[in-house]
Amino acid sequence: MKTFCVVMVLLLMGHGSQVIADDPKGVRWTFEDAHVGQLPEGWSAAKTGTGKGSVWKIVEDATAPAGRNVLAQTSAEGPNALFNLGILDEGTHGDVQISVSFKAVAGKIDQGGGPIWRYQDENNYYICRHNPLENNFRIYRVIDGKRTQLASADVQAEAGTWHTISVTMKGDKITCAINGKKLEVRDDTIAKPGKVGLWTKADAVTHFDDFQVTSVK
After folding, report:
1. Up-side HSE of residue 84: CA atoms within 13 Å toward CB?
2. Which of 52, 97, 164, 207 is the S-S candidate for 70 at Cβ 3.0 to 4.6 Å?
3. DSSP 3-state assignment of 13?
């Protein structure tokens, strides 16, 4: 078992991530070993909808909380109906805890960004996001490419500043938080385990760092 854990740590750290201390089922991505200008190994770009956009790559950000390298959605060409998806290829999670730091950088149509989970494919998953243009924090589900709002709260989290979104889903209960504001809702539409990842909408250029994922027992 010890040999397996050491090998796992080395493999993950080679991709800019590491096993979370005291939890071999948890992974933390800091992107520090990833190559600037490229999509990091172990990640894929996808889209909900059609049009230009969903261009994910590593960029440098001196203000980032976990080192200079961050994963960014860099395209400012996405149309209003497009969702930009950055998907972690390995692993699926049912009951899960997620934490990610994000900074809204630009976007005239939208600046929303946040994590996704129980991702079945590009048209079926859950989202929790904040949008500084609207000053709101929301939970959605996406089914067959259609987004439905599950919960919402007015929350001010300025663009150009780092904030942290946390998500816990256990069974059908979803709890999300940002800057001390919590949202809770129940939804059992997507019961199967799925992949996790990151999300922005339309032309939202957003930086993400310190992405942590842990299975919940």
Report:
1. 31
2. 207
3. helix
Burial readout 121-136 (b: 16 or more C-beta within 10 A, e: otherwise): ebbbbbbbbbbbeeeb
Secondary structure, 3-state, 67-122:
ECEEEEECCCCCCCCCEEEEEECCCCECCEEEEEEEEEEECCCCCCEEEEEEEEEC
Report residue 213's pLDDT band, with 50, 70 and 90 as the boundaries. Answer: very high
Q: What is the pLDDT of residue 8?
A: 37
The DSSP code for 65 is B
Give me the percent of the chain exceeding a pLDDT of 70: 89
Cβ atoms 74, 81 nearer than 8 A: no
In whole angstroms, give the CA distance from residue 89 to residue 195. Answer: 7
Type of residue numbered 216: V
What is the model's pLDDT at position 17?
66
- Quote the strand ranges of the chain, DSSP E: 17-19, 26-29, 43-48, 56-60, 69-73, 83-88, 96-106, 113-121, 124-131, 136-143, 146-154, 163-170, 173-178, 181-186, 195-201, 205-215
Name which CATH class applies to 2-215.
Answer: mainly beta
Length of the chain: 217
Burial class of residue 8, CB neighbours in 10 A (0-12, 13-18, 19+): middle
Cβ neighbour number for residue 51 with a 10 Å cutoff = 14
